[in-house]
Amino acid sequence: MRTKLQVLIAGLGLAASAAPAMAHHSFAAEYDASKTVTLNGSVVKVEWLNPHIWIYIDAKDESGKVTRWQCEGGAPNSLVRNGWNRESLRSGDQVTISGALAKDASNTCNASTVKLADGRRLFAGSAESEGGNAKGGGKQ
Questions:
Q1: CATH no. for residue 33?
Q2: Global confidence as pTM
Q3: pLDDT tens digits, 32-66
Q4: Domain around 59
Q5: d(CA 137, CA 121)
Protein backbone atom coordinates (compact mmCIF):
# COMPACT_ATOMS: atom_id res chain seq x y z
CA MET A 1 0.00 0.00 0.00
CA ARG A 2 2.80 2.40 0.90
CA THR A 3 4.60 1.75 -2.42
CA LYS A 4 1.41 2.51 -4.38
CA LEU A 5 1.01 5.78 -2.47
CA GLN A 6 4.61 6.77 -3.20
CA VAL A 7 4.19 6.00 -6.89
CA LEU A 8 0.95 8.01 -6.98
CA ILE A 9 2.59 11.01 -5.29
CA ALA A 10 5.60 10.82 -7.61
CA GLY A 11 3.27 10.62 -10.64
CA LEU A 12 1.27 13.64 -9.50
CA GLY A 13 4.47 15.58 -8.92
CA LEU A 14 5.72 14.75 -12.39
CA ALA A 15 2.40 15.75 -13.96
CA ALA A 16 2.36 19.05 -12.06
CA SER A 17 5.90 19.90 -13.15
CA ALA A 18 5.01 19.26 -16.80
CA ALA A 19 2.10 21.74 -16.77
CA PRO A 20 4.28 24.86 -17.23
CA ALA A 21 6.06 23.24 -20.17
CA MET A 22 2.76 22.45 -21.86
CA ALA A 23 1.59 26.05 -21.38
CA HIS A 24 4.55 27.40 -23.37
CA HIS A 25 3.62 27.71 -27.04
CA SER A 26 5.72 26.85 -30.06
CA PHE A 27 6.63 29.46 -32.65
CA ALA A 28 5.13 27.40 -35.50
CA ALA A 29 1.80 27.10 -33.68
CA GLU A 30 1.27 30.87 -33.56
CA TYR A 31 3.46 32.51 -36.23
CA ASP A 32 4.14 32.05 -39.94
CA ALA A 33 7.86 32.45 -40.67
CA SER A 34 7.09 32.88 -44.38
CA LYS A 35 4.97 35.98 -43.70
CA THR A 36 7.16 38.77 -42.41
CA VAL A 37 6.33 42.33 -41.48
CA THR A 38 8.30 45.51 -40.92
CA LEU A 39 6.60 48.01 -38.65
CA ASN A 40 7.59 51.66 -38.16
CA GLY A 41 6.09 53.35 -35.15
CA SER A 42 6.19 54.70 -31.66
CA VAL A 43 6.56 52.51 -28.57
CA VAL A 44 3.43 52.63 -26.42
CA LYS A 45 4.63 50.27 -23.68
CA VAL A 46 6.89 47.31 -23.01
CA GLU A 47 5.85 44.46 -20.71
CA TRP A 48 8.67 42.46 -19.13
CA LEU A 49 6.78 39.22 -18.48
CA ASN A 50 7.75 35.57 -18.52
CA PRO A 51 7.99 33.68 -20.73
CA HIS A 52 8.42 36.56 -23.27
CA ILE A 53 8.44 40.35 -23.33
CA TRP A 54 5.77 42.22 -25.29
CA ILE A 55 6.39 45.48 -27.14
CA TYR A 56 3.31 47.52 -28.07
CA ILE A 57 3.66 50.11 -30.80
CA ASP A 58 1.45 52.45 -32.79
CA ALA A 59 2.53 51.92 -36.40
CA LYS A 60 1.48 53.80 -39.52
CA ASP A 61 0.65 51.92 -42.70
CA GLU A 62 1.23 53.20 -46.25
CA SER A 63 -1.96 55.28 -46.13
CA GLY A 64 -0.99 56.92 -42.83
CA LYS A 65 -3.50 55.01 -40.72
CA VAL A 66 -2.20 54.27 -37.21
CA THR A 67 -2.69 50.74 -35.89
CA ARG A 68 -1.72 49.30 -32.50
CA TRP A 69 0.57 46.26 -32.82
CA GLN A 70 1.83 43.82 -30.21
CA CYS A 71 5.20 42.23 -30.82
CA GLU A 72 6.47 39.26 -28.86
CA GLY A 73 10.16 39.25 -28.01
CA GLY A 74 12.47 36.86 -26.24
CA ALA A 75 12.53 35.80 -22.61
CA PRO A 76 13.45 38.63 -20.22
CA ASN A 77 16.39 36.67 -18.79
CA SER A 78 17.79 36.00 -22.27
CA LEU A 79 17.44 39.65 -23.28
CA VAL A 80 19.16 40.83 -20.10
CA ARG A 81 22.07 38.49 -20.81
CA ASN A 82 22.28 40.12 -24.26
CA GLY A 83 22.43 43.64 -22.84
CA TRP A 84 18.79 44.70 -22.65
CA ASN A 85 17.27 46.23 -19.55
CA ARG A 86 13.87 47.65 -18.63
CA GLU A 87 14.96 51.03 -20.02
CA SER A 88 16.11 49.74 -23.43
CA LEU A 89 12.80 50.80 -24.95
CA ARG A 90 10.70 53.61 -23.55
CA SER A 91 7.28 54.92 -24.34
CA GLY A 92 7.55 57.35 -27.24
CA ASP A 93 10.72 55.84 -28.76
CA GLN A 94 10.56 55.60 -32.55
CA VAL A 95 11.37 52.06 -33.68
CA THR A 96 11.31 49.74 -36.66
CA ILE A 97 10.40 46.17 -35.73
CA SER A 98 10.88 43.24 -38.10
CA GLY A 99 9.28 39.89 -37.43
CA ALA A 100 6.90 37.11 -38.41
CA LEU A 101 3.16 37.65 -38.57
CA ALA A 102 0.72 35.79 -36.35
CA LYS A 103 -1.30 33.07 -38.05
CA ASP A 104 -4.56 34.41 -36.58
CA ALA A 105 -4.35 37.61 -38.71
CA SER A 106 -4.30 39.82 -35.60
CA ASN A 107 -1.96 42.79 -35.29
CA THR A 108 0.63 40.55 -33.65
CA CYS A 109 4.15 39.61 -34.66
CA ASN A 110 7.08 37.69 -33.28
CA ALA A 111 9.88 40.28 -33.30
CA SER A 112 13.31 39.33 -34.60
CA THR A 113 14.96 42.78 -34.56
CA VAL A 114 14.19 46.21 -33.19
CA LYS A 115 15.90 49.15 -34.89
CA LEU A 116 16.13 52.35 -32.85
CA ALA A 117 15.87 55.89 -34.22
CA ASP A 118 19.67 56.29 -33.91
CA GLY A 119 20.19 53.30 -36.23
CA ARG A 120 21.19 50.70 -33.62
CA ARG A 121 19.65 47.26 -34.09
CA LEU A 122 18.61 45.21 -31.07
CA PHE A 123 18.29 41.45 -31.36
CA ALA A 124 14.83 40.66 -30.00
CA GLY A 125 15.70 37.09 -29.00
CA SER A 126 12.47 35.58 -30.21
CA ALA A 127 11.92 31.90 -30.91
CA GLU A 128 12.67 31.84 -34.64
CA SER A 129 14.96 34.87 -34.94
CA GLU A 130 17.65 34.41 -37.53
CA GLY A 131 21.10 35.45 -36.38
CA GLY A 132 20.73 39.05 -35.39
CA ASN A 133 22.97 41.08 -33.16
CA ALA A 134 22.88 39.09 -29.96
CA LYS A 135 25.43 41.34 -28.27
CA GLY A 136 24.98 44.88 -27.06
CA GLY A 137 21.21 44.74 -27.22
CA GLY A 138 20.60 47.35 -24.57
CA LYS A 139 20.23 51.05 -25.10
CA GLN A 140 23.49 52.75 -24.14
A1: 2.40.50.1010
A2: 0.72
A3: 999 999 999 999 999 999 999 999 999 988 899 99
A4: 27-123
A5: 7
